Amino acid sequence: MNVLDIIKPENQVFCKTKLMTDTALSYCPGCGHGTAHNLAMEVIDEMGISEDTIGVAPVGCSVLAYDFMNIDITQAAHGRAPAVATAIARTWPEKYVFTYQGDGDLAAIGTAETIHACNRGENIVIIFVNNGIYGMTGGQMAPTTLEGMVSSTSPYGREIKSMGSPLKMTELVANLPGVYYVTRQSVHTHKHARKAKKAIQKAFENTRLKKGLSFVEIVSNCNSGWKMTPNDANIWMEEHMFPYFPLGDIKVDGKLK
């Protein structure tokens, strides 16, 4: 087979689970959302729980999940996904319920819903994609925007004295007694994606065992919001995001690491 044969559509191999729809991803090229979507759907498919899983997507880039995930998904108002997930999980305790949220949603307008769902130990999974910015609405500063980081609402960089420090939601919720499993991962390389998948699987296994709330943060880039190429955004993420938001498990089996 020569090069021209390889690029023909009929010869292409697409590595996606059957629980991802055939709708073309509308995320910016290089964004981690598509990989995170596929990993979550791979886990649900491999666990054989697709008919018993309900997702909740709020406002932000994550709201598009229902276009791409071939499972039952409902939409929540901005920041309210944990509250909606709580209602679903309490109504159908046999279901696997998860939220899929960005940092502008979960760590800003949704802070109260997040904190109280975690404190109560609701038997749900929260998947939290942190790219340090409001991606959908124009690249504004988010609670997770790093010190000195430029955004459309912090054109001279985030200044701690007037704007506060970047919020580490994952460390914050790890200290709540209702939270059973807390981890921070990434999906920008194959190695990191494999670790993220294992983390998501562990979270859903915890739901199966009625262990309480599992919180999986995925640090991602936003190359369009950061005004970088995808490759440069990944390098910047490794050099700046990871030191402040270090990857790895924070709480396992109800115990802080």
From TrEMBL:
Keywords of this entry: Oxidoreductase
InterPro entries: 2-oxoacid:Fd_oxidoreductase, THDP-binding, TPP_enzyme_TPP-bd
Domain Thiamine pyrophosphate enzyme TPP-binding, residue spans: 67-217
Gene3D superfamilies xrefs: 3.40.50.970
GO biological process, one term: cellular respiration
A Pfam family hit: TPP_enzyme_C
An annotated Gene Ontology molecular function: oxidoreductase activity, acting on the aldehyde or oxo group of donors, iron-sulfur protein as acceptor
Keyword Oxidoreductase: yes
Protein name in the entry: 2-oxoglutarate ferredoxin oxidoreductase subunit beta
